[in-house]
Amino acid sequence: MARKSLALELYANADDATDRQYIDQMRQQDVTPVPTDPSLPRFTLLVGPSPFTMPRGWEFFLTSPYEGATYISTVLHNAGYPVRIVDVRYDLDPLKSAYDQIVGQTDVLGVCTFEDNFPFCRELMAKVKEAEPEVPILCGGSLVTSVPHIFMEETACDIAVISEGELTILELMESHAAGRWSEDLPRIKGICYRDPEGRAKRTPARGQMMDLDALPRMRLDLWPQAQSPMGLQPQIISSYSRGCKMDCSFCYRTTPQVRAKSPEKMDRDMAWLKSQYHIDFSFFVDLTFSSHRGQTLEICDVIKDHDIRWTCLTRCADMDEPRINAMRDSGCDIVLYGVESLGKDVLREARKGSSENLTVRAMRTTFDAGVRFGSLLIVGLPNESEESLGHMVEFAETYNHVTRVKYLSAMPGTTVYQQAVAAGTIRSEIDHLNWLSVEQALHEDEFLNVSGLPEQTCRDAYKRIYDAYQPGPVMDFRHYPENFQYFHPQPDDGSERSTSYGGTKWRTDWSSAAGPLVPLSDRFTLDKCADPEVAAAGSSLMDCGAKQMADTVSPDAP
Hints:
Elements: E1 13-14, H1 17-31, E2 43-47, E3 54-55, H2 60-63, H3 67-78, E4 83-87, H4 94-102, E5 108-113, H5 118-131, E6 137-141, H6 142-146, H7 148-154, E7 159-161, H8 166-177, H9 181-184, E8 191-194, E9 200-202, E10 208-209, E11 235-238, E12 241-242, E13 259-260, H10 263-277, E14 281-284, H11 293-304, E15 309-314, H12 321-329, E16 332-340, H13 344-350, H14 356-368, E17 372-379, H15 386-399, E18 402-407, H16 415-423, H17 429-436, H18 455-466, E19 485-487, H19 496-502, E20 512-514, H20 526-529, H21 532-538, H22 545-548
């Protein structure tokens, strides 16, 4: 059996008596929520900023409520806790905004961690802990799951929740409300915590839920967007499964084991979202939506009954005529395929289980069905050559079907990350986490050049692929935040396929958009976070967005 690349504790199952207790509680309280009890501890869930841009037509993804934070807030709301989500993704000074909405207004703080928001989380937690040392701070999400030791050693985090959090947060808050943390924390699975002397301790893994049908219907109205003048946007992020059967070298998964909702559960969830929130579009973020043919056909039959448009992620190897036809008939607008590269040696090193032939076959099958094919590509994977990179550029320009390109990121917890640390390409884990917070997925980004190709070669390829973008599925998006920023107007409309979908001049005003970089992000460029030779290999020819803001006067922090 092949050695698993992720931490072994992520492959456990949540199936002991305590797990079953909270699974049953989730089920029951989804049907009959407990009225909010003001005597219970107030819980605030903080969603911080990300530098990531999205191409024209995909902006909805950056602003939408997402599942992780929604499920955590929903299970606590259903259990009677006073719950509030603080969303500062697009504030000009998110640190001050978050601080002002937290201090004096909560009893427990939960912080959502992403691979690209470590400095914000670290600084915000330090300020909150200084102001209110008695308020416990819990961290959850992909980043803290991949590097819990950093959060326990380098931040004011009191408890790190590892992998899935729905069961763990119920157990933690029940214990906290009863005043039992001192005796209970050593027995609560799936966390890191501090003992009375402040030393970090880790409990046994909780593991993944076996039955996703226990998850509640998402309460999107808990997001502040629901109280805004425009109300909730009708595009959402959802899924029917967790996990992935693959083990790609560059991809981190907090839930690596594949679990799926039943068609009946999916039908109930879709009916709820449609009736309560009037959704008209869903991005299904299952890592491999069409992995199992029979399951895909069943899920498409469910989606078909709810009259929505949708998109999803999948693998080129997991597509055929029955699947794509069912997806088309149920409203699928575009399928995003993890192509990454066409190079044989690149794909083998990345453990993609794919090939150029599989990619071309999937593309033709998708096009023949009348569905759009969206390539997701990476510039700078190990083993990439000038020849294979050039071939990928020609592929993108010939078919004009690109949805996203980015430079390789060494995501914490992945094989690529471990290799970069061992090789000294990453000077320190803290430096790397800081640097990830300025990656915007733009061609002027700095990058870790693990391929050894000339920087100019990588940048030229990136720009040409970027210019081969096609329109995203929501060109009529209306919920743009006030502080959104827009990048790289492009007067070239691309192919007729693009103009017939997005209209002429579809990207004349901008090709990508995102929230603003956090003030003082210029502290985290490669010249400050990497050894000189690493910085020179991936940041010499262009100034990234963080470097361009170096002369900007930042607002005062609290």
